[in-house]
Design brief:
about 625 residues, alpha+beta, two-stranded antiparallel ribbon, membrane, signal, SusD_RagB_dom, cell outer membrane, TPR-like_helical_dom_sf
Amino acid sequence: MKNKLFSYKKISIAAGIACLLFLLNSCDNELEVTPYSYFTSANFFSNTDQANMATLGVYESMSSRDTYGWYIPFVFDADTDILQISGLGSDDWRTIAHYQGISQTNALYTVWSKFYQGIDRANVVVEKIPQMDLYTNGTQNQKNQLNRYIGEAKFLRGFYYSELVRLWGDVPFKIKSSQTGDDLRGALVDRKEIYTQIIQDMQEAAALLPEETPKDERVNKWAAKALLARVALFAGGYSLSANGTMSRPGNYKDFYLIAQKEINDIMAQNPYKLNPSYSKVFKNQCQHVLEPTENIFQIAFFNPAGTIGNASWVGYFNAPLTAASSLYATTPGRCLVPKPFYTSFNAADQRRDVSIATYSINTLGNKNPLLTARQDESWTTAKWSREYQTNSTLERSYTHINWVVMRYSDLLLMRAEIENELNEGPNAIAYDAINQVRRRGFGADITGSGINITLGNKGTGYTAVGNVLIQITGGGGTDAAAAVVTLANGTIGTIAMLRSGDGYTSAPTITITSTDGKGSGATATATLLTKPTTTQIHLPAGLNKDNFLKALQQERAWELSGEGMHRSDLIRWGILSDKITETSTAVKAIRSNYFYPAVTNFVKGKHELYPYPQNETDVNKNITRQNPGY
């Protein structure tokens, strides 16, 4: 189980301290339990515990539903070719996702201000720790601790700025803490200048951070280098300029070289490895099992005593539609998956059924397939299903499931992309990196395989599909699921596989039961699926640069769907508009009224960035322009 970076006490103290060391924004009152008015930046940094608390305050800015517990990974990553938000309405989380957000949309300011809150807290830590007596005269252990805190603050400052630039482009920029009497109304600074500082911050952070595998959610050297590699790809990618055009730097390959160096440094030390089971990655997350060899950087969430705390909506907002039951708490099923993305998978790719729920979960805890009429428009993300969660009383409204910012497979796919770009085509390193990810996706390194189920006797007397349960036992595997799709005059008409599962070494036993006691006699049998060969799994040799990049782009979608970065990936590749148009054509081929509002609302040369929040521009007159199109 995870060692919580934040306990309720730590949240309260860290947030309370950071509020008093920071003047730019107000803090969340619900995190404050005891007043800390006697702490000031002048008299607070007197020992390592206080420095640690101040550093935790920098982390705390991202451990919120206002940032990575909701808005950024879910709302800000929709609507694309692989994910969209359900329904229409005036809620901020819908208008932003559906490309209808405007400068007055409050959630945009909420995210903006949280980032600047964290940046100013980081500035305090970076400035004040070197002024401590212990920093110069303490023991070596104390000096090491203090340098680590500086490294963490520099990394987080760089990370927060990289997110601001990713979402807004040019933004106000300062690396000095706010003091009484300061003019806090900064002008917009060119993102190129900001990227220079971000890269410097992350490089300096990596030099100060420990190499050891973390035991909690704090960043280490290798995570800093991995995130720096991602930042470099964004710095060298396409972004929307103030003149409304999409462009990338003329020297963009210089940034790819930075990313290559950082990834090569990581690979030389080999601190990471893929969990052989793709589904286990997300089960571990839902069960609060830290997996630092798979998850490079993650954000801590903790939901004390059922209160909001620094709680998350991971596994609530982005889970399959679930009715309240004795087994599971309810979820609204807000993160929808367009059907063309589902059909883009190879049927043997286990990531499809782990990532996409073609079912809902009813009040009995049974899966109801969504396979008739327009139900395919209700398919959702599935990686953080209530089935996998602890379902404790503390997590029925909010969860304390961590948000993973980067997994090792992401790093491998970045490596493949970088090598392809710098070598004008894929080399052996690029192929090996992407094929490692593909092998895991197809379950190649797990003994056994998935299964298929065939209906035998159709039985009699069944009353409703939701009351018929197909149970799968034995066989040595996990995760396979099937359900009844239709009934005909009390007999079972059709069944469907919802998940083929993995690890089955023999055919499991299939039992069909009725939860209402009505109906009997139906039977079914399972057979093992033939595992694909290495040749079938690996990308074909001899791809040119463009075709390898297209394969890489698709692989990132299959591997990382619903994990918060796809929309931004499409922007940095300059293909977001194209993908929305392609997806609209594909869903309209299914039915003319398929729900897909992105194609109507998206404007190329506008929606690649968000508008500067009006709450900010009303008071900061040094922001003299709005982002294009707003």
